[in-house]
């Protein structure tokens, strides 16, 4: 009698699109003017911390709100504030690690009087839990005949970096001094360009769009610079070949400093140096496939065999991709005479996908939100439009039964204009890991009894459709090797069809 044991492996449990809410009532500080008219607003979820203990894992997120408005003096102003929320999941005894990402799905801003902004954000969180699980396997005698199958199972890994602080000059402005300039807003927006394995770990490269809106001498100006970055996250010692890396980079704590820099000591000529400081932190997810060999069936030659079986379900990594696609829109220009687009954002809504044949189609819409200054340079108006998209991506290999772990972000956001139209545009960064759930039957127990021994002789067997060396060997409790030797079948595999054979000699 052979007992059932367990073989450990690692798997990923996904809990997707968990809905929640966050809110904040923000009284304006004394240095900000009363709200007269809201121009635009946005919110972003930043992961703050992760705690695990007992039978739970908890994630702490902050929601960063930005509200741009005109005060009662028609001065362009931005209020930045935040709130926190926590999400907790129960985990199994085999818990190893977890990873979570959050997004804002809808945002409502209302005023409670001229000096209090009330924000409410609908949130969605995706949680990935890595845990140990077991495959029920049978401990077989060394002389048992075995029929095995090789499966390629999804194998996840997570890692993250601590915060790293940066400071970069994003503009030098002549004929202006600190005393003449006031900061309306500043922002650091990270864009990931490449993620690859190196000897030290995994390298994430991209750039940060550092920007600021300044007010000087009754006018508003925007300055911007692309700042390259390269972050390396140490990664545990697994084979990085064949890994699919997905990175998320977050920029926090943006602050602006204005300094007078002397260009000519004799004339005391100077320029205004605009320096942006911020912090970056990265989260990394790795998906790869590891091969496991499982025993489907077994028997002992010369014995009466009775086996039990169990179904094992696993996820197979079948494909991955990372694509960049452009989206753009043409809309009639507002009646007001626009002088400049001083700020532009975009958010994604209604992201979903469909799989048909070898094609994955991603649907959604990009909602552009901008603040435009008018010809007089004093008044500002909001500009908001939606651009639906449908992006088709060809993927080699069959995708039947596949599901996608889909990620879509938006970058390179901008709005240009001419005398007749506005042209909002952006780049969609679309990534996906495609998995398929497979089930295989494995042997979980085997019992054997002695049978009556017979003299050396041969039985003649006439194969029928579907017969293989394995099922004949098992039926008559003879080794596969003895069947192959008796029938000179060295080139046959144990699961190959025997339709081309008129008869089979079976040693007894």
Question: How would you characterize this protein structure?
Answer:
The protein is built from 2 helices and 22 strands. It is mainly beta and 508 residues long. The chain folds into 4 domains: 10-139, no CATH class; 158-286, no CATH class; 300-451, no CATH class; 453-508, Membrane-bound Lytic Murein Transglycosylase D, Chain A, CATH 3.10.350. The strands form 7 sheets. Strands 7, 8, 12 and 13 form a 4-stranded antiparallel β-sheet that branches. Strands 14, 15, 19 and 20 form a 4-stranded antiparallel β-sheet that branches.
In short:
The protein is mainly beta. The protein has 2 helices and 22 strands. The protein has 4 domains: about 10-140, no CATH class; about 160-285, no CATH class; about 300-450, no CATH class; about 455-508, Roll (Membrane-bound Lytic Murein Transglycosylase D, Chain A), CATH 3.10.350.
**Count of spatially separate domains:** 4
Strand coverage percent: over 45%
Sum up the overall morphology in one term. Answer: elongated
* Biggest sheet character: 4 strands, antiparallel
- What structural category characterises the helix and strand content? mainly beta
Quaternary structure annotation: single chain
Tell me the helix content.
under 10%
Sequence stretches where pLDDT stays below 50 over 5 or more residues? none
Our Rg estimate from Cα atoms comes to 32 Å
Run of helices and strands: EEEEEEEEEEEEEEEEEEEEEHHE
Total helices: the number is 2
